[in-house]
Amino acid sequence: MDSLTVFGLQLVLSLFVYTLLARWYVLPWLADKPLQLALTILIFPHAMRHIGLTFFVDGVIAGPLPGLFGVMAAYGDLAAALLAIVALFALRGSWRLVRQARVAPGGVLQH
Which of 81, 97, 86 lies closest to 45 in space, CA to CA? Predict the structure, then answer.
């Protein structure tokens, strides 16, 4: 089996299992939580997506996958992590930090 088929199968199976987990356990548990707490709980795992920066390490991307895949995945994960951290501050009511920076159309933070 080639690498792309393996990755595709892993993706489909992971989505299926996480859908079951969400419907059977997470959604019923979150249903009685206040919205702010529920959103905070759901956002926290995304704040750890900086781990995707390991795609920049030599040898992580190998074989038939293009090198650009690792670069795009690493920067995408970093952007998602930074946005999640900003959202966590916003949910905690620390809007001062969020208001001090605004996102420019190019995605660059400006003061």
Answer: 81
| Digitized pLDDT (tens) for each residue of the chain, 111 residues in all | 888 899 999 999 999 999 999 999 999 999 999 888 888 999 999 999 888 888 888 777 766 777 687 788 889 999 999 999 989 988 887 655 555 555 444 444 444
Query: Alpha carbon of 87 to those of 6, 43, 63, 103, 105: distances in Å?
Result: 34, 8, 37, 13, 18
User: Which residues are CB-contacts of 64 (< 8 A; sequence separation ≥ 6)?
Assistant: 2, 3, 4
